Amino acid sequence: MFSTLLAAAILFFTDDLAAAKVVVESDIPCKPFHEIYASGRELCEKMWDGSFVYETNRSRAYTMWFFDKDNPNDEVTRNLGLSPPSVCHLRYLHKDTPGPEPDTFSECHPWKDHSCCTEDTVSSVQKLKESYGPEWHWDRCGPLTPACERFFVQEACFYECEPNAGLFRKYPDSDYNSSDPSHNRWQMSGMPIWSDFCDAWHRACHNDKFCAHDDGNFFSCAAKYQETATTGPTEGLTVGIVFGCLIIVALIGVLGFLVYRERTGQPMFKPLEQQVS
Ligand SMILES: *[C@@H]1O[C@H](CO)[C@@H](O)[C@H](O)[C@H]1NC(C)=O
Ligand SMILES: *[C@@H]1O[C@H](CO)[C@@H](O)[C@H](O)[C@H]1NC(C)=O
């Protein structure tokens, strides 16, 4: 009886762990980009939860990448009647003020002379992808083609390194309330992005797969992933452990009772001959 129950407990444990893994994968619906986003506009605006807006007027639109010696985004800021910031307003891995980086700074090279990121945080594609935790990995629906992944790298560099991005904080200093838990200093809102950049991103990723949850909102996808990765499996695991412990306690109790009966001369299981006689 003991070994049967033990086997049942072990089966319960392994079964539970297997079930937890399935939850994580099936809860993230993956679809090709062209099925999630109808256009470059949808990609830029939906994927980033309103951080960016699609802008066709080049003189009012920022670009997430450039080859010019001087950052063309400074001119865009001036065209919008603002001044390029002298501090890094976004707060994630950012520096306090924009400045030059060493010669080894290459992954996010456009910002080498004047960046809000340090070489250390943007040293490689891998580093950029893993900076925000597993829920923000852009290849959770399978590896992306290099052409598609490049745009995610550019966006990550832009977010970390571009001083002008700090002008579009969701909770700018004027509204920011540090004791309000819904406020933060990392989120962006409504930054106009050059339409051609968004359209090119949409073309490059056409057949790649991405999380389709909530119309391909990367923020909801990350939250969903975290929910299933933390509450899902660990909750299941906790239940499994508690249940397993209960079974073990019950077994010890039964065993103790049998020993007690045996010692007090009233054994539960008498030898066969004795029972018959
Ligand atoms: C584009 O934006 C600039 C700067 O705000 C403005 O002067 C210009 O009229 C706009 N062009 C169009 C076609 O709307
Ligand atoms: C800041 O947030 C806290 C907590 O939500 C709130 O009680 C307080 O009134 C807020 N302060 C301002 C100035 O809005």
Automatic annotation (TrEMBL):
Signal peptide as annotated in the record: 1-20
Keyword field: Disulfide bond, Membrane, Signal, Transmembrane, Transmembrane helix
Alphabetized GO MF terms: signaling receptor activity
Transmembrane domains' residue ranges: 237-260
All copies of domain Folate receptor-like, residue ranges: 87-222
GO CC terms, sorted: external side of plasma membrane
Family statement drawn from the similarity comment of this UniProt entry: Belongs to the folate receptor family.
Name of the protein: Uncharacterized protein LOC109485581
Species of provenance: Branchiostoma belcheri (Amphioxus)
Species classification: Eukaryota, Metazoa, Chordata, Cephalochordata, Leptocardii
Gene designation: LOC109485581
